[in-house]
Amino acid sequence: MSMPVRGKGKKDHHFDNVDHALSLFNKMIEKYPKPSIVEFNKLLGAIVKMKHYAIVVSKYRQIELLGVSHDGYSMSILINCFCQLGRIDFGLSVLGKMLKLGVEPDVVIFSTLINGLCNQSKISEAVRMFDEMTEKGYQPNLIVYSTMLKGLCKTGNTGRAVRFLRLMESRGYEPDIVAYSTVIDCLCKNGLLQEALNLLSEMKVKGIRPDIITCTCLIHGMCNLGQQEEATRLLNEMADNNISLDIVTYTLLIDALCKEGMISKAVQIVDTMRKQGIEPDVVTYNT
């Protein structure tokens, strides 16, 4: 797809791939006087959308050497690129440079850095940045809260994740199905099944309908604790409520029942699958 790069008062530039974009970049740096950082941002921002992050970093370094000064937007692009490249340390350096220049980071920059820290399992640093963000008066959006929740759960910070869920609510953000499922999965993986079921009940009271991810997490948790009958009841309840389950969820439970020698119950689950229009595959039969 051709991507436009809009110049102020000029004809739009179009290019179909990164080579065309780089050709335009080379033409821009040959001009005198040099185009403004705004024009470079438009071009390099389009290259970011193509996911050529290392190229963007390299080109910003090149224009710096040519005397083109950064602005807040160019630094936010750089922070995003460094985070995408797994170089959160460089992203934090750019943040430091912004602060020294008196450029206030916005919620997008904080969100990008928090995501980068969480992706590298640097949860304590992510929490500090979240606190710094709120202290500066920035209101985290749902994306920031979801990123923090995912990071806390990924690193097994179950208690913190539950507290963070409550923090969201206290600040006026109602957790959605994704937030609840993320925490339920974390609780189940840590053997805290009752706490996970309590969250499931809370969801239902709020009118949030469990989905396939929620159900699979709970069924997996029940099976891991040897609660195959409870898992069977949950699966049947979900099927009765027309919650679409997939072959993975069914096979998970069938495998657990077979391992416990509960063959007749496993056969019943296969029948339930078929009633739902899901045909067992070779993995199910091998189970």
Side-by-side strand order of the widest sheet: 1-2
Question: What would the average pLDDT be, to the nearest integer?
Answer: 85
Rg over CA atoms, rounded to whole Å, is 25 Å
Approximate helicity band: 55-70%
Note the overall shape. elongated
Strand residue content: under 5%
Task: Give the uncertain stretches in residue-range form.
Answer: 1-13
Give me the secondary-structure category. mainly alpha
Task: Count the DSSP helices.
Answer: 16
Number of strands: 2
Distance between the termini: 46 Å
The largest β sheet comes out as: 2 strands, antiparallel
String of helices and strands: EEHHHHHHHHHHHHHHHH
Describe this structure in words.
By secondary structure, the chain is mainly α. It has 16 helices and two strands. It has helices spanning 18-30, 37-49, 53-65, 72-84, 88-100, 107-119, 123-135, 142-154, 158-170, 177-189, 193-205, 212-224, 228-240, 247-259, 263-275, 282-286, and strands at residues 3-5, 13-15. It has a two-stranded antiparallel sheet with strand order 1-2. Helix 2 runs antiparallel to helix 3, helix 3 packs antiparallel against helix 4 and helix 13 runs antiparallel to helix 14 (247-259). The protein is elongated. The two termini are 46 Å apart. The model is unreliable at 1-13 (pLDDT under 50).
